[in-house]
Structure formats: structure tokens, C-alpha cells
Amino acid sequence: MQALLPTRSTLPLFDVAASRRIEARALAHSPDLMERAGLAVAKLALALRRGEGPIWIACGPGNNGGDGRVAARRLSEIGLPVHVGHTAPPQPSLVIDALLGLGLNRPPDAALQTTIAAMQTCGATILAVDLPSGLLADTGQAAGGAAVRADHTLALLTLKPGLFTGEGRGYGGQLWFDDLGITPDEVASADLLGPSPLPQRNPTSHKGSHGQVLIVGGAPGMQGAARLAARAALACGAGRVYVDLLGLPATEPADPGQPELMRGRLADLPQAVGVVGCGAGPTIADALPALLREAPKLVIDADALNAIAADDELQTLVRARTAGSTLLTPHPLEAARLLGCDTSAVQADRLAAASELARRLACTVVLKGSGSIIASPGERPAICASGGPALATAGSGDVLAGWLGGLWAQQPGASGHAIACAGVDAHGRAGEAGGVLRAGDLIERLAARR
Ligand SMILES: NC(=O)C1=CN([C@@H]2O[C@H](COP(=O)(O)OP(=O)(O)OC[C@H]3O[C@@H](n4cnc5c(N)ncnc54)[C@H](OP(=O)(O)O)[C@@H]3O)[C@@H](O)[C@H]2O)[C@@H](O)CC1
Ligand SMILES: Nc1ncnc2c1ncn2[C@@H]1O[C@H](COP(=O)(O)OP(=O)(O)O)[C@@H](O)[C@H]1O
């Protein structure tokens, strides 16, 4: 058993169907799986229990409840007070939520909701078995809006995508994992991202060795967004970073606070990685056809995404680009505009939404938000479990776009998918902080990890 986050390497995630197949094959040669699962739950419960009161174990009708009952037996065997039932005992020292796991197939009914509410209000730490009851394993949504908000979740046998995206991280608490001694014999449904190495700098390299980035955005009044992206690309290590500030005369400095940045235009920088759309306003639509036709690599964000969503011809140009050369970074609302649906439909199944957008536009998609998804045609989707609410502030997405451009400039042979996985994970890890991170501070934290 191990605490899972932050991840030290990329880990396989298995959806319900794949987990079921793994479970069925494992049971054929290891029929004691539930014993192992219950023992793992009991061990973690011992570590989490606070006080002398009974451990309350709420068991459901299926095997999730079976795990809970094994844990109850194990804990009783060592002399601990255990209360198995759907109502709270006085002053429980821990709650074990073993109501529903992988088999959740409808919103919890009224009786289950009453038990869930009692768990939530009894004041004890909650340990969920495999999944918080009510949380959908594939999507990270609460079925019908009701799910246990656990303090800890012990995932068993497989890691399920829903623990890491959508609302999953809000419901799961601290995550633990026990594979029950089984090596999965299935292709993963998705990857849980681990850290990627940053580009190495050869001792004999010069600025020309580290590529160029051209930021296009920053309409009057919104230059900050383009400048944040440019500063992030510079901090990432790009050799030269240029800014095309829309509507500002070319004689104006790129960024008075960052003299390393230069003004530049697509026509003069045919090799530069384009980062397009940060603070760009609607006029970015005029610049997009040339960028989409000519820029060898593009990171497309914010207003550029909205312009593409509103224009079929721009969408055709996106699809026509060389495979692996285009990376879109929508937040859920921008993704919804691109897909022609509403935000709740995107959030209901983030993996499916990102994959569908990647398929439709034939490019890499980073669907941002808690548990960012990276999806590309022909690639297994990835989920980023790093990052947190300190990133929920204006400008952190601009920093991500610039960082991705900076990475790509230094690794021109890498696909959009590889760059997105590396950059999104680094951005998330740098964004793990208490309180709120100003975007400028986020850049410093990213740079410090180089
Ligand atoms: N097999 C093994 O050895 C291992 C199993 N493992 C463990 O098993 C868990 C999966 O067990 P599972 O497949 O039995 O599903 P589970 O989550 O207990 O629920 C199914 C039951 O709940 C019911 N139900 C569903 N939704 C409901 C609702 N909203 N409200 C009310 N009832 C609802 C559903 O009822 P029905 O649809 O039949 O009416 C059915 O009776 C997995 O998460 C892990 O903990 C692992 O430890 C590995 C070893
Ligand atoms: N709660 C959260 N957990 C993890 N990452 C988050 C969270 N909130 C925001 N982020 C990340 O912060 C960034 C915000 O981007 P975006 O919404 O485009 O902001 P902006 O346009 O203001 O820069 C994204 O990378 C997103 O994934």
C-alpha cells in the first residue's frame, strides 16, 4: 500500500470495464482477493483511527460491502471496537465507507443518502473503500449529485480515472493504492501522469540551440496575458521569445518589465513555435489563417479557441495541419464552445469530451481544470493529478500556454501529446501551494524546478 500523490512515475488507470476484466481473471487464480482487500483496509484504518471510540463500517450490498465486512472481522480480531451498520455509533474513531464501489449503477437512493449524510456529520475521519460511495469510477462525477466526501480513499486492485479528474479529487481526499498483489493484464484505459525530465542544456549550446517562440495576443487592455505567456516561455528556457502584441505599434516594447523579450511577427519568424490567443480578443480571427497555414507548431489558447469555435473555415485549417503539430488548451467553457455543447456536458465526462475534440480537430487537446486531460488522436489519454486550487486565478492558463511553447521550442522533434503531458504536469506540480498563486509567482516556481 502506498500514498499515491504526488506520483513518481506514470501509472496506468483502468475504467470499470477493464477493472472488471482484470478482477475476473485475477479471481481465477487468486480467489482470496476480498480477504486481501479487507486486510488492506483494516491496516490503513489502524493508521488513521483517532481516539478510542468504535470504528464505524457502513457496508453496502455488493463486494464493496464485502471488503468492509472483512475489514470489520480483521479489526475485531485484534480487539478493536467495531460497529457495522448504517447508523453512526457514539463518537466513532473512524468511518469506513464500504457502501458502493465499482458497481455503482444509479444515484444513491434516499436510504443511502441518509447514511452518507450521517457519515459526513459524525465528525470522524472517513476512509472510503476503493471509491467514495456515489462517485462514478469512469468520470469522476457524483451519480445524481450525492457522494461521500472522504478524507482518504484506498483504491484496490486498479486505479480508476474518476479519482483524478472532474469532481473526483474533491471527493477522494488523500489517495492510497493497494494492487492486491495482482499485475494488471490489460491495456490501460488512460495514463496518470508522472514527472517528465526537462530538456537538457548541452554545455556548448547557444541561444540558437534552444528554439524560438512567438506569442501572438495581447490586444489593447489585455497585454498582461500575452506577456505572462512570453515570460513563461522565457523561463522555460526557449532561446528567443518574441511577442506580437495585437494593435500596439511595433515600436512599443514587448514588455517593459522583462527586457529579454522582443517584438516579432510571423512573417519574420517562420521557425518559431506559435503561442496564440492569450488576451487576444476577437481580432485574433484575422491573424489565425496565416498562423494555421504557416506556423510549424502551434499552441492555441483562449480567444483563438473561441474564434476557431465560431468559424468552420478555421476549423478546417486546424484539421489540415501536420499531425502532431497543434495543441489546443481549452478550459471547460472553451471546450464546450468548440464541441457545440454546454460546460456541464463537458464536465460530465471529461475524458470523453477531450478525446472527441481531439478526434474532431485532429490535434492534441489539453482540457484544463482539476485533473487536466491530455488527448490526441492515436494516443492513450492522460490525466494530470498535479495542481490544485492555488492555480484557480487569472493568468495561470496563460503561463501554461507559454510554458508549453517554451518546451516545444527546445524539443522540436516531440509530438504535441508529449509536450502537453510534460508541460501540464510541470505546471501542476509548480502550482501546488497553499492559498492562491499569482501567475508571476507561478512562473518563478516553474523556473525554480528547471
Ligand atoms: N470481487 C472481489 O473479490 C473484489 C472486489 N473488490 C471490491 O468490490 C467492489 C465492486 O463490487 P461489486 O461489483 O459487487 O459492486 P459494489 O460497488 O459493491 O455495488 C454493487 C451493489 O450495489 C448495488 N447498487 C449499485 N448502485 C446502487 C445505488 N445507487 N443504490 C443502491 N444500491 C446500488 C447493486 O445493486 P443492484 O444493481 O444489483 O440492485 C449491487 O448490489 C470494488 O469497488 C471493490 O471494493 C475489490 O476489492 C477487489 C476484490
Ligand atoms: N482546482 C484546480 N486544480 C488543478 N488545476 C487547476 C485548478 N484550477 C485551475 N487549474 C489550472 O489553472 C489553469 C487555469 O487556466 P485558465 O482557466 O485558462 O485561466 P486563465 O485564462 O485565467 O489563465 C489551468 O491549467 C487549470 O488546469
Task: Please tell me about this protein's structure.
This is Bifunctional NAD(P)H-hydrate repair enzyme. There is one protein chain. 55% of the residues are buried. The chain has 450 residues and is an alpha/beta fold. The protein has 2 domains: 188 residues, Rossmann fold; 242 residues, UDP-N-acetylmuramoyl-L-alanine:D-glutamate ligase. Helix 7 runs parallel beside helix 9 and helix 14 packs across helix 15. It has 15 helices and 18 strands. The chain binds ligand NPW and adenosine-5'-diphosphate. Adenosine-5'-diphosphate binds next to helix 13.
Present the secondary structure layout.
Blueprint: E1 2-3, E2 11-13, H1 16-29, H2 33-48, E3 55-59, H3 63-77, E4 82-84, E5 94-98, H4 110-121, E6 126-129, E7 152-156, H5 168-172, E8 174-178, E9 190-192, E10 212-217, H6 223-236, E11 240-245, E12 262-263, E13 273-276, H7 284-294, E14 297-300, H8 302-309, H9 312-320, E15 326-328, H10 332-339, H11 343-348, H12 350-361, E16 364-367, E17 373-375, E18 382-383, H13 396-410, H14 416-430, H15 439-448
Parallel strand pairs: 3-4, 3-5, 5-6, 6-7, 7-8, 9-18, 10-11, 10-13, 11-12, 13-14, 14-15, 15-16
Antiparallel strand pairs: 1-8, 2-9, 16-17, 17-18
The structure holds ligand NPW and adenosine-5'-diphosphate.
Adenosine-5'-diphosphate binds next to helix 13.
